[in-house]
Amino acid sequence: MSTKHEKILQYIESLPVGTKISVRQIAKEMQVSEGTAYRAIKEAENSRLVSSIERVGTIRIEKKKKENIERLTFAEIVNIVDGQVLGGRDGLHKTLTKFVIGAMQLDDMMRYTDAGSLLIVGNRVKAHQLALTAGAAILVTGGFETSEENKRLADELQLPIISTSYDTFTVATMINRAIYDQLIKKDILLIEDIYVPLEDTSVLRADETVQHFHDQNTATTHGAYPVVTNQNKLVGMITVKDVIGKPSTEPLDKVMTKNPIAGSMKTSVAAAGHRMIWEGIDLLPIVDEDNTLKGVISRQDVLKALQLAQRQPHNGETIDDLVKNEMKVLGEDDIFVEFKVTPQMTNQYGAISYGAFTTLLAEAGAFALKRHKRGDAIAENLTIYFIKPVQMESKLTVRPMILDMSRKFVKMDFEVYNHNTLVGKAMMTFQLLER
């Protein structure tokens, strides 16, 4: 049976794209409190089912598949450029296919402007009209308006006219940045990409007994199970260790681990894996905001996903990617890493930033561990106890040295040289990932 929260989300998803919604309307329609309605709308926004726009309200937008996440809706454009909608509000849910900068003659401009485009242009009223007729939306820069006739045409064609106080170059940069960020987000593995859904998950009920655990264990050979209520609310986790020596008639709610650690759909796989290793758990239940079980992930699922992700090309470059691109691993037994500091890796003083420096050390340490055939590892903590300013364009040499290694942890010392001058020293602890 669905919870109130789930029913509201299902109701929002069933609404036609472009429908305007409000907390009060949802509360009245679904007969729930405004607080419940508000929380559901916020989750719908996180799930990209709706978009909230200042001075416009919340509208139902087309939910984009992850592979098309870099395609923005006009509603998202309004938020990116702090825009004001002059007309065509009913078309804010539509997705733009490309944007055109109108810094050319009118005829040339129209050659590039077609249905689904966003024309970025100043106060050229005739260009606004022709673009609308061609099926394109308009982004008017410089805080300018458009004609009343164009506003009526935009309403009729359901094509937004958006006004922003930013100039054309700044707006194009902001939209490009948003698309670029979406490309990076697309590469990030989330739990929703790899989890085993509830219908394929073996669960036990809180009112069942230890005998039910043994029966389930015999049938599935799994060593751990989520414990749920009849409404699929997560109330505990139970493992083989919990039932050792317990009578078969003992209720599960007496022996299970209550208030277990759980994850959400939007948690990254890397964060989930780190927490599972740190907490020593092999199975992580996945819940929604109402603590309803959605599925599970295992430690094996996480490790496979992370190892696969390392081999996949990325569309958008992060700081980590920039650092890795400048690294050259040399040496056989005692490896060292050569590295060039680029302008993107510097702080306001032109010296290497702490973020780039720590990424460099973590990656150099990971390379050293792989050479020792210890597989993948996660950096647990880092202490930098000596660093001199390192200017851009400097060529560094990083020398990692393993100080101590156990089955699960590695302590490593680092020395960083700029030519022959020592410019940095650090110590880092890694936790080894089990294969």
UniProtKB/TrEMBL annotation:
Signal peptide: none
Pfam families: 4HBT, CBS, DRTGG
Family matches, as InterPro entries: CBS_dom (IPR000644), CBS_dom_sf (IPR046342), Diverse_CBS-Domain (IPR051257), DRTGG (IPR010766), HotDog_dom_sf (IPR029069), Ser_kin/Pase_Hpr-like_N_sf (IPR028979), Thioestr_dom (IPR006683), WH-like_DNA-bd_sf (IPR036388)
Segments forming domain CBS: 190-254, 256-318
PANTHER family assigned: CBS DOMAIN-CONTAINING PROTEIN, CBS DOMAIN-CONTAINING PROTEIN CBSX3, MITOCHONDRIAL
Swiss-Prot/TrEMBL keywords: CBS domain
Protein name, per record: CBS domain-containing protein
